[in-house]
């Protein structure tokens, strides 16, 4: 279920129109600039344009790999428009050299449209801005749907509601010193009822390039929770939209390290704050964590490293372990070269040397494609210095390690061996926010049951 309204940025007439208009202007600009010119300038312009196009494709490809963003292969149109945007830039330079304000104006407009077309293709790839309205709301930081101030929420208590409310919260950082943005909490209808019960809570973690509102605006988590509450007497978990990155381009992977003490912030600051200020149940049996992409890696990592804080997790298209690229890059950037710290946040290493988990459960969601993992390990995993022995075992063939669905099965098998009730759920789709929304909606009844809400499914069903 979704409340999307407005013009789609993922399909339909607008993306096609933007690309068609950009292509037409690019052809017109090239004809008008090169027609009548002497052969040598024409040849030079064409050679420079071809070189710029090639460099744009190579640079874009390198950037995506360096930032570990190639979860699904990018659409061919993304490479095409990266190249054409570079060509448009070369033609803009040529137009500046030539006389005629109209040529220069056309060149500027063509470049902007070409860049927009490339951006549209990147957006189609990840599904970040579903509609024009959502894009405007995100870019202008418009108020969230169903948002209310803490003071207004206090005044609402005791009054029955049919939908929940989103509340901004200013969580502390005195323990972690993690510079974070405003975080949010969703309070279900039952929270407002007279003599409201103590409710469980679920921490929601987004992807690598993320804001705390992504699960609300793009992942439709509030819509999903409201739909669940309508069929369960207003009961639903409290949803906690935490900031795991601190900024849009800071990929912490939810570990403590040079990029910030994200794990400490989530567990030792956000969680106690929600318990103290919103009366969430403090028991680990009443807390879960859900994440998509990098957030999925965070979810399983928090679930296995901190069972004292979380008893259930949903990993949506996450990876085998926190990773920032290659093995050396990961060790340096996430852990400052500290192999012991890396081992402490590696799920399979932790599972291999952990006592059985008596009360934990996990749900892995992925798609059946054979795409490479977002972070493909390049060398053997780190040794665990706490165990005085070699590193984690590699339970899957090396040729299969590039498949995230296989990695989900690997993690689930390791978790099951340590007593974690676990299941893997494979559904059609791509590595997009739309897949994340569907996966969360699919798992919510199970998750709510695990966290103690009545009239909900309590055991997972394997669908892999």
Keywords:
alpha/beta; Rossmann fold; hydrolase activity; membrane; 15 helices; two-stranded antiparallel ribbon; globular; 2 domains; disordered C terminus; Esterase-like; acyltransferase activity, transferring groups other than amino-acyl groups; eight-stranded mixed sheet; 464 residues
Could you outline the blueprint of secondary structure elements for this entry?
Blueprint: H1 13-34, H2 39-66, H3 76-97, H4 101-126, H5 132-139, H6 150-156, E1 165-169, E2 183-187, E3 201-205, H7 214-217, H8 221-230, E4 238-241, E5 256-257, E6 260-261, H9 262-278, E7 287-292, H10 294-305, E8 312-316, H11 327-335, H12 339-344, H13 347-352, E9 361-366, H14 404-417, E10 421-426, H15 433-450
Parallel strand pairs: 3-4, 3-7, 7-8, 8-9, 9-10
Antiparallel strand pairs: 1-2, 2-4, 5-6
Report on this model:
Keywords: Hydrolase, Membrane, Transmembrane, Transmembrane helix. It comes from Actinomycetospora corticicola. With 464 residues, this protein is of the alpha/beta class. The protein has two domains: 13-134, no CATH class; 143-450, 3-Layer(aba) Sandwich (Rossmann fold), CATH 3.40.50.1820. It has 15 helices and ten strands. The chain has helices spanning 13-34, 39-66, 76-97, 101-126, 132-139, 150-156, 214-217, 221-230, 262-278, 294-305, 327-335, 339-344, 347-352, 404-417, 433-450; strands spanning 165-169, 183-187, 201-205, 238-241, 256-257, 260-261, 287-292, 312-316, 361-366, 421-426. An eight-stranded mixed β-sheet has the order 1-2-4-3-7-8-9-10, with helices on both faces. Strands 5-6 form a two-stranded antiparallel ribbon. Strand 9, helix 14 and strand 10 (421-426) form a beta-alpha-beta unit. Helix 1 runs parallel beside helix 3, helix 2 crosses helix 3 and helix 8 packs parallel to helix 15 (433-450). It is globular and about 80 Å long. 47% of the residues are buried. Residues 370-402 and 455-464 have low confidence and may be disordered.
């Amino acid at each position: 279920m979704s409340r999307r309204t407005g013009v789609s940025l993922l399909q339909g007439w607008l993306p096609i129109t933007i690309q068609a208009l950009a292509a037409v202007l690019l052809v017109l600009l090239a004809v008008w600039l090169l027609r009548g010119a002497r052969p040598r300038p024409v040849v030079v312009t064409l050679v420079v344009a071809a070189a710029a196009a090639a460099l744009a494709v190579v640079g874009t490809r390198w950037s995506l790999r360096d930032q570990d963003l190639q979860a699904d292969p990018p659409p061919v149109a993304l490479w095409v428009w990266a190249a054409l945007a570079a060509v448009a830039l070369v033609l803009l330079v040529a137009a500046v050299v030539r006389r005629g304000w109209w040529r220069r104006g056309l060149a500027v407009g063509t470049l902007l449209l070409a860049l927009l077309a490339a951006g549209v293709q990147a957006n189609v790839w990840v599904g970040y801005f579903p509609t024009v309205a959502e894009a405007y709301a995100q870019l202008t930081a418009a108020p969230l749907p169903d948002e209310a101030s803490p003071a207004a929420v206090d005044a609402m208590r005791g009054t029955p509601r049919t939908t929940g409310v989103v509340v901004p919260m200013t969580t502390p950082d005195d323990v972690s010193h993690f510079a974070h943005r405003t975080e949010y909490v969703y309070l279900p209808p039952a929270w407002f009822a007279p003599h409201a019960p103590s409710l469980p809570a679920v921490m929601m973690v987004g992807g690598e390039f993320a804001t705390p509102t992504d699960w609300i605006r793009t992942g439709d988590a509030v819509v999903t929770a409201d739909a669940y509450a309508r069929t369960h007497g207003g009961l639903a978990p409290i949803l906690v939209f935490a900031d795991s990155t601190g900024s849009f381009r800071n990929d912490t992977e939810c570990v403590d390290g040079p990029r910030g003490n994200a794990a400490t912030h989530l567990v030792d600051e956000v969680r106690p704050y929600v318990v103290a200020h919103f009366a969430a149940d403090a028991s680990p049996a009443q807390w879960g964590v859900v994440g998509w992409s990098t957030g999925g890696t965070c979810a399983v990592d928090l679930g296995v490293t901190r069972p004292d804080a979380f008893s259930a997790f949903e990993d949506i298209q996450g990876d085998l372990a926190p990773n920032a690229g290659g093995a050396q890059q990961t060790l340096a950037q996430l852990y400052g070269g500290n192999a012991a710290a890396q081992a402490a946040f590696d799920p399979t290493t932790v599972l291999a040397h952990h006592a059985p988990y008596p009360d934990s459960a996990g749900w892995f969601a992925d798609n059946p494609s054979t795409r490479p993992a977002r972070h493909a390990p390049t060398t053997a995993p780190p040794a665990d210095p706490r165990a005085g022995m070699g590193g984690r075992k590699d339970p899957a063939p090396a040729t299969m390690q590039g498949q995230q669905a296989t990695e989900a099965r690997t993690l689930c098998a390791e978790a099951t061996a340590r007593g974690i009730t676990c299941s893997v759920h494979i559904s059609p789709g791509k590595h997009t926010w739309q897949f994340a929304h569907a996966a969360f909606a699919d798992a919510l009844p199970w998750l709510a049951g695990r966290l103690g809400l009545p009239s909900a499914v309590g055991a997972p069903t394997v669908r892999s």
